[in-house]
Amino acid sequence: MVRHAEAGHVPGLPDRERPLTEGGEHDAREAGELIGRLNPELVVCSPAVRTRRTAELLDLDAPVEIEREIYEAYPEELLELLCRTDPDVHTLVLVGHNPGVHQLVLGLTGTAGDGFPPGAVAVVRLPGSWAEAGFGTGSLVEMCQPRRFLGKST
């Protein structure tokens, strides 16, 4: 699960059209280095400009599908999307928005979390098939956020 990287606020620009900041572009590339090691087979993302650009900058060797329902989705709706994933897909990347993505991670894993800033990544392992995914069925493998949010130099 990936929360889109940091986006700018441009007066008069609709929310769906908000672009990534320069720092956000850097963070998305950084997240792609981690995610690429997982060899995902599919990326699904919201139609918002910032999520599409995040998915592009992850630079993964996997097709990207735009899923309209990810934008402003509740965790239950995101779970339904996961459950519909093709069983031949073993590793999926979902690029979306908060609070839905963070709440989905917390719900799947039963963990507590303080935050999920822009560009954050959570790796969740689910047992069984996608159709069997449910709240409390997953385990959190790793959660990370961009170094600049951790107070480290970039």
What does this 3D model show about the protein?
This protein has a four-stranded parallel sheet, with helices on both faces. Strands 5-6 form a two-stranded antiparallel sheet. Helix 2 (49-58) links the parallel strand 2 and strand 3. It contains four helices and six strands, in the order βαβαβαβαββ. The longest helix is centred in the N-terminal third of the chain and has 15 residues, at 22-36. It has one domain: Rossmann fold (3-Layer(aba) Sandwich). It is an alpha/beta fold. The chain starts with a strand and ends in a 10-residue tail after the last strand.
Predict the CATH topology. Rossmann fold
Q: Within the largest sheet, what's the order of strands?
A: 1-4-2-3
Largest sheet: 4 strands, parallel
Kindly report how far apart the N and C termini lie.
22 Å
Instruction: Determine the number of helices (DSSP H or I, runs of at least 4 residues).
Output: 4
Give the number of DSSP strands: 6
CATH architecture heading: 3-Layer(aba) Sandwich
Beta-strand residue percentage: 15-25%
- Overall pLDDT level: 94
Helix proportion: 25-40%
Instruction: Spell the H/E element sequence.
Output: EHEHEHEHEE
Shape: globular
**Number of discrete domains:** 1
Radius of gyration: 14 Å
CATH superfamily: Phosphoglycerate mutase-like
Quaternary state of the chains: single chain
What's the gist of this structure?
Helix content is about 30%, strand content about 15%.
